[in-house]
Design brief:
With 94 residues, the chain is an all-alpha fold. It has three helices and no strands. It has a domain of 54 residues. The radius of gyration is 33 Å and the shape is rod-shaped. InterPro entries: RNApol_su_b/EpuA (IPR024596).
Length: 94
């Protein structure tokens, strides 16, 4: 397939541009051998702890709302052992 002279010039220019870009990157890498280290403002281990805490608070809030608001119980009774023993007996009763 024959290309006219203007498209051949464009291809040549594009190839030259790519080569210049590669050379520029190589010289920048050689000039600054130190790599930038990304410092996380919020470390991964802290993210995991925060997610676990949010989940725990959600479960507690759900239990309080479910037992006291929807179930007409008292908020103080939500986390008593007798309450949960009674609920498990109701669920497991055959």
């Amino acid at each position: 397939m024959a290309l006219n002279s203007s498209s051949q010039e464009m291809v040549k220019t594009r190839e030259e541009f790519k080569e210049e870009k590669k050379e520029k990157q190589n010289t920048e890498e050689m000039a600054s051998p130190k790599r930038k280290i990304r410092v996380r403002l919020f470390p991964i281990w802290l993210r995991i702890i925060v997610i676990i805490l949010i989940m725990a608070v959600s479960v507690l809030a759900g239990a309080i709302v479910g037992y006291s608001v929807m179930g007409d119980g008292r908020v103080n009774d939500t986390f008593k052992n007798e309450t949960w023993a009674h609920i498990s007996n109701l669920i497991n009763e055959e």
